[in-house]
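Quick one: co-fold with zinc ion.
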Amino acid sequence: MTDIRFQNLGPEQWKADIMLAPFCEGEVDLAQCPELDKAAPWLAVAPALRDVRGEKEELTLLHGHHDLSVPRVLTVGLGQRDTLDMEIFRKAVAGAVRLCTQKGFASILLPEPMLAALPGGRERLVEESVCAALLAVNRFPSLKKKLEKSPPEPEWIALGFMDDKPDCLHAAARRGENAATAVSLARELANTPGNLLSPRALAERATRLAEECGFACTVFDEDTLEKNGFGALLAVGRGSAQPPRLIILEYASGGCEQDKPLVFVGKGITFDSGGLCLKPAAGMGEMKSDMSGAAAVLAAVATAAREGVPRRIVGLLACAENMPDGRAMRPGDVVRAVNGDTVEIANTDAEGRLVLCDALAWAQKEWTPTAVVDIATLTGACAVALGKDMAGIFCDDAELVERIRAAGGTCGEHYWELPLWKPYAEQLKSEIADICHMGPREGGAVNAALFLRHFVTDGVRWAHLDIAGTDWAEKASPLCPVGATGFGTRTLLELAREDAL
Ligand code: BES
Ligand code: ZN
Ligand code: ZN
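Sure, here it is.
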């Protein structure tokens, strides 16, 4: 992976194959950028600089003599200053880094003083530019026998600083690097085909990460699930040759072991065929990413542990493969969940809420959480309602909604609140069991959220994030190739880093 470095001795000492120079529209003026002038004095006589406008998505490659310490500059247009936001900034940096990679440049320099002149806050700009740069070069490891002839990733990306002591900016860069590592891990897991990533394989991966990053990982196999009453999770896994697993991640920094934990719960369906209520063939392949919620939880907890955030965190990954076979759950079956309630199953394709209800109940039985946040590719209805760029948030606690929306907003993961509309809970009544796991098609995302709420005790702070739709990119962008997006990972990581929750 591309290394992040620091060059601390001032612009005269900066050195790289290419330096990025971000400009707002109408502000391309060397006289206003003394650092740029010092790092690449040849720019003053580069005629092409006169044509650079700083328009959005404009990239101009300028060449100096090849044996200079900074022989090339790529100007990066950001558009008008008053319309510039973090989204535009991230995309611009990612687009620039991608171009540098295509050209085969091994080292790239980001001049921090030029970032500091932009709106958004110095530390955030550093964190976001590092994260964006790394996501731009990250690729899913190829499964092809013959490696494609694509240019290698840059060897390193350096932040160029003035000769002051920017400790907090180093830390910001490390946070950006860690965020990119987390998102890349979540994407890699969600892009991995179902046959290569079963619940067991995911548990093995989590166990390895636990050793590497410093947290505990416990895996419940079928016997343990049975003993502890996970009737709903077991029912979902029964139709598959791959047994279900509950993967429990526990992290606490020194001194926080007795604190109430923040609990994350992720839907971990390693493949969702729909079960006996089989999905149509078209698009079924995408359901290898039906464990995106679990991937986000694993990546966020592992990264928080690696960073040593000063708190206690529990992550629960509710993992199963939803398949049709002779042992599969049937529509009409009744199962018993961890909290003792019986659940009528109406449609085997609404499996996510079944694995989650057991995990939610377990979280409250085992711990006294400060808050529980679940994340799941739960309903097509949510994707229909909000589209591919915005996830649903369901939560009765207005303050928690704001916390999560703010955490997501800073890293480009947006949530829109949908209602836990109480009257619809009536629609989940069952003739034969304590509750039915689904209601009518209309309001499908709300009905699913209300089913989950049934398993959350009054007074427990809880939010449900429905990431169906946002978890998968149909089109490539500078920050993300086609496939799993890792959506939600950075939100959870931000929540873990905050000490307020
Ligand atoms: N994993 C799907 C939801 C989904 C759909 C995620 C599209 C990503 C993209 C989920 O298990 C499912 O199939 N839900 C059903 C529920 C219905 C049967 C009540 C749905 O949304 O159609
Ligand atoms: Zn399903
Ligand atoms: Zn599903």
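If it helps, The mean pLDDT is 96.
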